From TrEMBL:
Alphabetized GO MF terms: GTP binding; GTPase activity; metal ion binding
Membrane topology: Single-pass membrane protein
Official protein name in the record: Signal recognition particle receptor subunit beta
Family: Belongs to the SRP receptor beta subunit family.
Binding-site list for Mg(2+): 71
Residue positions binding GTP: 64-71, 119, 178-181
Recorded GO CC terms: signal recognition particle receptor complex
Organism: Rhododendron simsii
GO biological process, one term: protein targeting to ER
């Protein structure tokens, strides 16, 4: 009985296949190829769209001198607390998460990949691993101990701003003046001006020294003019924050401007 049913089904299917073959033969060849072409093109188009969607970077890189407060800020973004008692980091700290401040928001929110690269000079080359996927770079500055570190911070920032990948991809940079919870912290305007002054000096000395090996290093600013961040091809902005007390709204704004929710 069951076998009969199977035979019947087989016949039916064979019948359908024959019908389909007849139909296909009735369609002019050119039309058939055109139809197949359209289907293949559509599939290709959708694959392409997916590929591009996925390639959109969602990494925000936290950099800056050791002790500027990157790790505290990382935890503030992730957990909404500072994890008091952090020590000098020896490894990059990374995570993909929905910002703590957005946890209670309705709807699907895109997580952000945040990387905190320690300021220790041995670990700085790690930046090159993360820059290709960077949607934005946050350069954290200690606004409290700014003056003694101004030169070192400017050198580090100079290196970042002249990196080929940063210039070519026009990766936006946010200079984040941290620790403004203390009254003695310098203002972001003061810090911006000092950094510009120091970078202006560096620019003169460095181009004089390394004229020969500037091949993959981009030069900064406009020749003959005093350096200002507004001359950079990528957008460079300043903001302030306190990782310790959780005043990081300007940073969160920067993150969401460049990694869409
Ligand atoms: N007052 C004040 N202190 C802060 C703030 N943020 C960080 N600190 C202190 O600064 C010190 C360094 O902070 P970290 O977050 O460890 O610094 P880091 O940039 O990660 O340093 P490395 O890992 O060495 O590169 C710690 O003692 C923090 O408590 C802040 O907003 N205000
Ligand atoms: Mg750290």
């Amino acid at each position: 009985m069951e076998k009969d049913g199977f035979e019947q089904l087989k016949h039916q299917v064979e019948e359908w296949v024959r019908e389909a073959e007849k139909l296909v033969h009735q369609i002019p060849q050119t039309q058939l190829y055109a139809a197949i072409g359209v289907v293949l093109l559509t599939i290709f188009f959708f694959l392409l769209v997916r590929l591009f969607k996925r390639a959109k970077p969602n990494t925000i890189v936290l950099t800056g001198l050791s002790g500027s407060g990157k790790t505290v800020i990382f935890y503030q973004l992730r957990d909404g607390s500072s994890h008091q008692g952090t020590v000098t980091s020896m490894e990059p700290n990374e995570g993909t998460f929905v910002l703590h401040s957005e946890i209670n928001k309705k709807g699907k929110i895109k997580p952000v990949h945040i990387v905190d690269v320690p300021g220790h000079s041995r670990l700085r080359p790690k930046l090159d691993e993360f820059f290709p996927q960077a949607a934005g770079i946050v350069f954290v500055v200690d606004a409290l101990e700014f003056l003694p570190n101004c030169r070192a911070a400017s050198e580090y920032l100079y290196d970042i701003l002249t990196k080929a990948i940063v210039v070519r991809k026009k990766i936006p940079v946010l200079i984040l003046c941290n620790k403004v919870d203390k009254v003695t912290a310098h203002t972001k305007e003061f810090i911006r001006k000092q950094l510009e002054k120091e970078i202006d000096k560096l620019r003169a000395s460095r181009t004089a020294v390394s004229e020969a090996d500037v091949a993959n290093e981009y030069s900064l600013g406009v020749p003959g003019e005093v350096f200002a961040f507004s001359q950079c091809q990528n957008k460079v902005t300043v903001a302030d924050a306190s990782g310790l007390t959780g005043e990081i709204s300007q940073l969160e704004q920067f993150v969401r401007e460049h990694v869409k929710a």
